[in-house]
Design a protein that fits this description.
With about 450 residues, this protein is of the alpha/beta class. The protein has two domains: about 230 residues, no CATH class; about 170 residues, no CATH class. It is about 30% helix and about 20% strand. The strands form four sheets. Strands 5-6-7-11-8-12-13-14-15 form a nine-stranded mixed β-sheet, with helices on both faces. Helix 1 packs across helix 2. The longest helix is centred in the N-terminal third of the chain and has 21 residues. The chain is globular, with a radius of gyration of 21 Å. The structure holds alpha-D-glucopyranuronic acid.
Length: about 450
């Protein structure tokens, strides 16, 4: 299991406020798709939807080390700057992952079926579990995998982390039903709504496998969810009080996804070196952090991830840290919530999370009318992170693309027609992106 060393993190956190900062230079004119809309109130908090009121963004510098040295080579990035940035992000935003330096847990992989013909002969279905256990309890995560039936060898796959249990996410009567969390209670999975359901056929036809996981099985998504999730394996349940740098749900979901990736990589039907991760919205935030912290994810696709995801927190546009801290204080480390009143003072921002994924392929997708997630702020974070991909001789983004037109390059950006959630332009863009960097050998 991948682990970050807690002791090291504490030492470096002290440098947080000394982190070098730089303006992004003149921001490009917002593209035509970045349309203003009337400002509003969400609870007690105002929401700005006017680009002209955002002001100048000053972002922590990526290619200058904490000691002021210029980072000019891939090696200097990997050895020096990337670990500094990881520490800043862990300490100030996501928190130290559960289990780090703490109680040992055992991890078991169980299979209820392997490679059974499914989806009218298009796929082979494998159903399995990852069980994480200690003397405090256990957490069982179901993994549903479809690999292309026509594959002649291990397939590249996309791991999709979903809001709904597997049983409602695919039209297939053979899927094991697990419980779902609805309003803080468990109900039989079939009673759950299928949120952001995907058509798997285009992936399978193009030679990619798809794995599905329900985030509620890693940890339920509410304030006291830690008592019913992965965190309870590492800390006694119901006594959960978080240190300022302790993980919330996002880092916990990310940790669970990493465990799922390890399990998938151990399967002969899967090419363990070509596992991409896909998530939407809060699960887009999660996919970014999982990809950032687990270098064995080969690629990341994040859709409408917004605040705490790909959108720059320094831009007061749409959702801000204050809104997240008010509604979902359990998602990030407590220290991040405290930045709500002054995001400009944060030692971290979204471009740093994106840059952690470099030089691996990353596709950032926004929704045109998803103003709450600040699509233009997502684009600007990708633009700010681009120099890190360039350091490796890879391509990033420069000018904002037209609607529904994905930029090419290892760091790619798409803004789709429509709002929050998957859009019609996504799947073709994702498949082209995968073909460029994870090409299936079985087409
Ligand atoms: C809310 C939340 C967002 C989040 C979204 C989602 O809108 O404010 O930060 O991304 O839910 O997960 O759908």
């Amino acid at each position: 299991m991948r682990r970050v060393v807690a002791g090291l993190l504490l030492g470096l956190a002290a440098c947080a406020s000394d982190a070098p900062v730089a303006t992004m230079g003149p921001a490009p004119m917002p593209p035509a798709w970045a349309k203003d809309q009337p400002d509003e109130m969400r609870g007690d908090l105002p929401v700005n939807y006017t680009q002209a009121k955002v002001g100048v963004a000053v972002a922590p510098e990526l290619l200058v080390s904490a000691s002021g040295g210029k980072i000019a080579s891939p090696d200097a990035w990997t050895r020096e700057r990337r670990p500094e940035i990881e520490t800043l992000l862990v300490e100030n935003q996501y928190g130290v992952a559960p289990g780090t330096g703490g109680r040992e847990a055992s991890i078991e992989h169980g299979y209820s079926e392997r490679g059974i013909p499914a989806l009218n002969g298009l796929a082979l279905r494998t159903q399995s579990t990852v069980t994480v256990a200690s003397e405090l309890g256990e957490q069982v995560i179901d993994v549903l995998l479809y690999t292309p039936a026509k594959a002649t060898g291990p397939s590249p796959i996309v791991l999709m982390v979903n809001f709904s249990p597997n049983v409602v996410m695919v039209d297939d009567t053979g899927i094991r039903e697990t419980d779902a969390w609805v309003n803080g209670q468990t109900v039989p999975g079939r009673q759950a709504r299928a949120i952001a359901k995907q058509d798997l056929k285009p992936y399978l036809e193009r030679g990619y496998g798809v794995a599905l996981v329900y985030y509620g099985q890693i940890e339920p998504d509410f304030g006291t969810g830690a008592s019913d999730g992965l965190r309870k394996v590492f800390k006694p349940a119901n006594t959960y009080e978080r240190a300022p740098n302790e993980a919330g749900a996002i880092a916990t979901w990310a940790e669970g996804l990493s465990l799922v990736r390890e399990q998938l990589a151990a399967n002969d039907l899967v090419d363990g070196k070509r596992i991409a991760l896909y998530g939407v919205s809060r699960l887009g935030k999660t996919a970014l952090w999982a990809g950032a912290t687990d270098p064995d994810f080969a690629a990341v696709i994040t859709v409408c991830s917004g605040e705490g995801g790909a959108a720059l927190s320094r831009r007061t546009y749409g959702e801000t840290i204050a809104h997240v801290a008010a509604s979902f204080p359990y998602w990030f480390a407590p220290r991040w919530n405290e930045l709500a009143t002054n995001p400009a003072a944060s030692p971290v921002d979204a471009h740093m999370t994106l840059a952690m994924i470099a030089p691996r392929p990353l596709l950032v997708i926004s929704g045109e009318t998803d103003a709450w997630a600040d699509p233009y702020g997502e684009f600007l974070a990708a633009r700010l992170a681009t120099p890190v991909w360039r350091l490796f001789g890879k391509q990033g983004v420069d000018a904002a693309p037209e609607l529904d037109t994905v930029t090419g390059g290892e760091l790619s950006y798409l803004v789709h027609t429509g709002g929050h959630g998957p859009g019609p332009a996504d799947t073709p863009a994702i498949l082209d992106f995968l073909d460029r960097y994870m090409a299936a050998d079985s087409r």
